[in-house]
């Protein structure tokens, strides 16, 4: 199991940028694919993007393509979510998650460890 802690959320205006971080501990970070999910009030948790163990492969939800970028630093046990041109519909609690996978999983059930989440609010 890996322990995950997100940070970097906040209140921003539409069009702004935010970078979320997720620090991991407790297990070998580089053996996990890392994903980002979000959950808006009253809605199900949805996939945002994922990055492979090596960091060479990423996969994004259609809503995130072209605006969000996931990267990881295996030396720092940290994964990042850079979010640009934020929209009001990006509002929600953002979670990072770890999956013991060699690919780029996108389904919630594939992830075994979850952080506590960080709130992102996009509003004018």
Low-confidence stretches: none
Number of strands: 11
Strand proportion, as a percent range, falls in over 45%
Gyration radius, rounded: 13 Å
Report the sheet with the most strands, covering strand number, pairing sense and barrel closure. Answer: 7 strands, mixed
- Helix tally equals 0
Provide a quick synopsis of the model.
The chain has no helices and eleven strands. It is mostly beta strands.
Keywords:
0% helix; 124 residues; 4-stranded antiparallel sheet; 7-stranded mixed sheet; mainly beta
Write the layout of secondary structure elements.
Blueprint (H helix, E strand, L loop, with lengths): L2 E5 L2 E3 L5 E8 L7 E7 L6 E6 L6 E3 L7 E6 L4 E6 L8 E8 L13 E2 L3 E5 L2
Parallel strand pairs: 2-11
Antiparallel strand pairs: 1-3, 3-8, 4-5, 4-9, 5-6, 7-8, 9-10, 9-11
How would you describe this structure to a colleague?
Helices cover 0% and strands 48% of the residues. The chain contains no helices and 11 strands. The protein is mainly β. The model has no long low-confidence stretch (mean pLDDT 96). The strands form 2 sheets. Strands 2, 4, 5, 6, 9, 10 and 11 form a 7-stranded mixed beta sheet that branches. It has a 4-stranded antiparallel beta sheet with strand order 1-3-8-7, with no helix packed on it. The N and C termini lie far apart (39 Å).
């Amino acid at each position: 199991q890996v322990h995950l802690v997100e940070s970097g959320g906040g209140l921003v205006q539409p069009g702004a940028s935010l970078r979320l971080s997720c620090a991991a501990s407790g297990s070998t970070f580089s053996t996990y694919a890392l994903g980002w999910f979000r959950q808006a009030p009253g809605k199900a948790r949805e996939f945002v993007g994922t990055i492979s163990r090596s960091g060479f492969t990423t996969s994004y939800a259609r809503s995130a393509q072209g605006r969000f970028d996931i990267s990881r630093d295996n030396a720092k046990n940290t994964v990042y979510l850079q979010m640009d041109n934020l929209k009001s519909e990006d509002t929600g609690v953002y979670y990072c998650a770890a999956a013991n996978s060699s690919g780029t999983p996108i389904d919630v059930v594939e992830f075994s460890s979850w952080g506590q989440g960080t709130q992102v609010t996009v509003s004018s």
